[in-house]
């Protein structure tokens, strides 16, 4: 069963990145040049780099998201199963949410270096070697200049945000799933 969850999550991430990456590129550039408007940043990217500019970092984002999903979803399912086993009944939605927070936080922590590489690639000057999208090169550059600390830059806010997101999303997912399964079985 974990293999199915991993495959489904990976496929979903590849498709979601088609929308997520352009918005992330625009957002990150807006964060580093606060004087520009979002539409102006979007237009400049298209004018200067074309559609490829909006998708700079697509590969690195997918290479971050797939390992994240491969860690988060099976861990979430395992934590729920463990909690259910310990209490002798299915985990409640709030318990699923706690498991989601733990799984998301752990997955966020271990994939932070990939997030750092993705961010470097997205923010690199057009035409630079960093803008080429080579994740290993970006990781090596960070390692050379900043060491382990650089590879895990931003780990605390990333873990906090993703833990909260995992709590909300996976808790709501579990509650909705339970409700829909109950409705399908003839229970309101």
Automatic annotation (TrEMBL):
Pfam families for this protein: Mito_carr
InterPro entries reported in the protein's UniProt record: MCP_dom_sf, MCP_transmembrane
Solcar repeats: 3-82, 91-179
Reaction catalyzed: S-adenosyl-L-homocysteine(out) + S-adenosyl-L-methionine(in) = S-adenosyl-L-homocysteine(in) + S-adenosyl-L-methionine(out)
Cellular compartments annotated: Membrane
A single GO BP: mitochondrial S-adenosyl-L-methionine transmembrane transport
Protein name: Mitochondrial S-adenosylmethionine carrier protein
GO molecular function: S-adenosyl-L-methionine:S-adenosyl-L-homocysteine antiporter activity
Keyword Membrane in record: yes
Family (UniProt): Belongs to the mitochondrial carrier (TC 2.A.29) family.
Main localisation: membrane
Role: Mitochondrial S-adenosyl-L-methionine/S-adenosyl-L-homocysteine antiporter. Mediates the exchange of cytosolic S-adenosyl-L-methionine, the predominant methyl-group donor for macromolecule methylation processes, for mitochondrial S-adenosylhomocysteine(SAH), a by-product of methylation reactions.
UniProt keyword terms in alphabetical order: Membrane, Repeat, Transmembrane, Transmembrane helix, Transport
Gene: SLC25A26
Source organism per UniProt: Microcebus murinus (Gray mouse lemur)
GO cellular component assignments: mitochondrial inner membrane
């Amino acid at each position: 069963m974990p293999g199915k969850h991993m495959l489904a999550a990976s496929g979903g991430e590849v498709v979601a990145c088609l929308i997520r990456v352009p918005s992330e590129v625009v957002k990150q550039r807006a964060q580093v040049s606060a004087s520009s408007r979002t539409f102006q940043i979007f237009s400049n990217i298209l004018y200067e780099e074309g559609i490829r500019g909006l998708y700079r970092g697509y590969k690195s984002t997918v290479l971050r998201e797939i390992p994240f999903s491969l860690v988060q979803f099976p861990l979430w399912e395992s934590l729920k199963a463990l909690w259910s086993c310990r209490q002798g009944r299915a985990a409640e939605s709030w318990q699923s949410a706690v498991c989601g927070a733990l799984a998301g936080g752990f997955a966020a922590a271990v994939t932070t270096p990939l997030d750092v590489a993705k961010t470097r690639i997205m923010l690199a000057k057009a035409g630079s070697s960093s803008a080429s999208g080579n994740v290993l090169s970006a990781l090596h550059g960070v390692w050379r200049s900043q060491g382990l600390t650089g590879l895990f830059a931003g780990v605390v806010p990333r873990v906090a945000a993703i833990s909260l997101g995992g709590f909300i999303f996976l808790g709501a997912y579990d509650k909705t799933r339970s409700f829909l399964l109950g409705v399908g079985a003839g229970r309101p």
